[in-house]
């Protein structure tokens, strides 16, 4: 492992240096050359890697929170494992459980480590995805990892695990522990404030500037890289921006994420029709009472009505 300046790796004006592994291994994410980094969030995550800070990235869905962490890990050759804390993840899944295995033809009971003890003993960045959807019993397991020493006690094994020097802990969340206040994120929980207080750094990731978003969509759908295609994508991003503003003002209950814009562009390649691809990618997800508003956004951005079945040619 060697220390490299952030200026060299990410082109960010900072004196921070970050460890980089010399070799890649199977748990290192693949580098996405089209990914665009947010400066402040990048520095926050890099501080987590460089100084072993516990970093939470919060923001609306589709802003690339988990991917942001993974893409930084990819450039550091740092192994990275994501765990989605949905309602089905239990304490036993994280810590481990006794399992019956065969030893010399005999069935014996053996403790099988969960993902936390496994990661804790390795140079791994563990990303707790959808952190605000975790069950209370699961969250109290995680709370111990947020302490400065981060030791984990396995009561059933009478064993204490000290974290590896290369272990790092990150989390992503749609809310900041206040639960489903907007009605957009069903299943999110109220988080213990004492636990939130243990996260050393909390970064907020918003949507990208329109030009950066356009560059990402073009990189994903190269067939739209000419002037005509860029014009179509620019109008798509305009629709997305209007839905985001409508959501902020309370006019809409959902919004278009960059992921949805990419799906729209990809579906355009399948159906050859901007409006049909829009209908299938986003409009059909909207509440009936809100579709007229979204169709108006489409008209304002493309200068055409969604006539009849909502079909207009991509031009």
UniProtKB/TrEMBL annotation:
Pfam families: AAA_5, CobS_N
Domain AAA+ ATPase: 51-197
Single GO term (MF): ATP hydrolysis activity
Listed SMART domains: AAA
InterPro entries, sorted: AAA+_ATPase (IPR003593), ATPase_dyneun-rel_AAA (IPR011704), CbbQ/NirQ/NorQ/GpvN (IPR050764), CobS_N_dom (IPR025865), P-loop_NTPase (IPR027417)
Ranges in coiled-coil conformation: none
Cross-referenced PANTHER family: MAGNESIUM-CHELATASE SUBUNIT CHLD, MOXR FAMILY PROTEIN
Protein name (database record): AAA family ATPase
Organism: Allopusillimonas soli
């Amino acid at each position: 492992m060697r220390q490299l300046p952030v200026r060299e790796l990410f082109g960010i004006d900072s004196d921070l240096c970050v460890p980089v592994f010399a070799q890649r291994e199977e748990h290192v994410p693949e580098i996405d050359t089209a990914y665009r980094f947010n400066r402040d969030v990048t520095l926050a995550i890099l501080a987590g890697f460089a100084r072993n800070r516990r970093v939470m990235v919060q923001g609306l869905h589709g802003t690339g929170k988990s991917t942001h962490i993974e893409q930084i890990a990819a450039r550091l050759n740092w192994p990275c494992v994501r765990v989605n804390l949905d309602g089905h993840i239990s304490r036993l899944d994280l810590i481990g459980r006794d399992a019956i295995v065969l030893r010399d033809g005999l069935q014996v009971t053996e403790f099988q480590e969960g993902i936390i003890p496994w990661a804790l003993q390795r140079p791994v960045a563990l990303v707790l995805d959808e952190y605000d959807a975790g069950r209370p019993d699961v969250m109290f397991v995680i709370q111990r990892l947020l302490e400065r020493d981060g030791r984990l006690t396995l009561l059933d094994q009478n064993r204490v695990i000290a974290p590896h020097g290369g272990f790092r802990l990150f989390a992503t969340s749609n809310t900041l522990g206040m639960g489903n206040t907007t009605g957009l994120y069903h299943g999110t929980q109220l988080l213990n404030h004492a636990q939130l207080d243990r996260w050393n750094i909390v970064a907020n990731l918003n949507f990208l500037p329109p030009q950066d978003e356009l560059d990402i969509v073009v990189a994903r759908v190269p067939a739209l890289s000419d002037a005509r295609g860029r014009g179509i994508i620019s109008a798509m991003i305009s629709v997305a921006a209007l839905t985001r503003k409508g959501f902020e003002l309370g006019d809409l209950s959902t919004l278009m994420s960059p992921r949805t814009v990419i799906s729209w562009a990809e579906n355009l390649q399948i159906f050859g029709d901007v409006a049909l691809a829009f209908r299938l990618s986003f409009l059909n997800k909207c509440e009936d009472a809100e579709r007229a508003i979204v169709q108006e956004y489409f008209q304002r951005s493309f200068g055409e009505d969604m006539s009849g079945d909502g079909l207009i040619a991509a031009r």
